[in-house]
Design goal:
The protein is of the alpha/beta class. It contains 10 helices and 7 strands. Helix 1 (5-26) crosses helix 4 (72-82), helix 1 runs antiparallel to helix 10 and helix 5 (121-134) packs parallel to helix 6 (153-164).
Length: 270
């Protein structure tokens, strides 16, 4: 049974608190892009993705790949919320000897592939999708992409591959917050028109408000029922969502909150 929208909003708020707490404890990390993708992952892990926290390698599980791996605090926080790891472990982020590294690490329960170099996640997802077909498994594959990755050639090679093989068990989600480390996407290297490009590459494209749970769930359901093409969900989001002084501020791409900033942010998330 799916949690209702109000319950999902409460979970999302807790995930945002955990992201801020772990980044502040680490004194480094990527704040803006983790906060922008909270609803996307909460909806996925609570309402769509088949998984078993007690058996992370369950053979019939669905697969999630975080291609924008620097935003891994959101994944770690959601995994902790779902019971893959203890919440107190979140406070070891980026510390020596911790398995919670600064980019997603396959040694963490529930993490399916390590990430670091951007642009690779969709290719990895293609591999999982093809192998599921060869093994006749009813498995769905999800991949979270970032705006900056749209500027990389490997993404478009992977997009062609997925369409060529009609990988309708694959759903990519673009966290389209309009910013990257160097500034806005349009200032750095424009990627529009996204819908037309992906449709031309042979994908089923769905555009949504990436912070609206009803929109997100409808998109996940659409992606699952549409046959013959892979799906791309363009989720329009706000970088740093949920904290007023972080929202839409490119400087918060790769810095962690200091103590006073943390206290102010947590106050907003009460």
């Amino acid at each position: 049974m799916r949690p209702d929208t109000e319950e999902l909003k409460k979970i999302a708020k807790q995930v945002r608190r955990d992201i801020l707490l772990m980044l502040a404890e680490a004194k480094s990390g990527h704040t803006g892009g983790a906060l922008s993708s909270v609803e996307i992952l909460v909806a996925l892990y609570y309402c769509k993705l088949r998984h078993d926290p007690k058996n992370p390698r369950w053979p019939l599980r669905d697969i999630f790949i975080i291609s924008k791996g620097h935003a891994c605090p959101v994944l770690y926080a959601v995994l902790a919320e779902r019971g893959f790891l203890p919440r107190e472990e979140l406070m070891t982020l980026r510390k020596f000897g911790s398995r919670l590294q600064g980019h997603a690490y396959i040694g963490v329960p529930g993490v399916e592939a390590s990430s670091g170099s951007l642009g690779q996640g969709l290719s990895i997802a293609n591999g999982f999708a093809l192998s599921a077909r060869l093994d006749n498994l009813p498995r769905r594959i999800f991949a979270l992409l970032g705006d900056g990755e749209m500027q990389e050639g490997q993404i478009w090679e992977a997009a062609m591959t997925a369409a060529h093989y009609k990988l309708d068990n694959l759903c990519a989600i673009l966290d389209h917050n309009g910013m990257q480390i160097d500034g806005t996407i349009e200032e750095t290297k424009g990627i529009e028109p996204l819908r037309e490009k992906w449709e031309a590459f042979g994908w089923n494209v769905i555009e949504i408000d990436g912070h609206n749970f009803e929109d997100i769930m409808r998109a996940y359901d659409n992606a699952e029922t549409f046959k013959g093409k892979p799906a791309l969900i363009i989720a329009r989001t706000i970088k740093g969502k949920g904290v007023s002084f972080i929202e839409n501020q490119v400087d918060w791409h790769g810095i962690a909150p200091k103590q006073q900033e943390l206290e102010r942010a947590l106050k907003e998330l009460e």
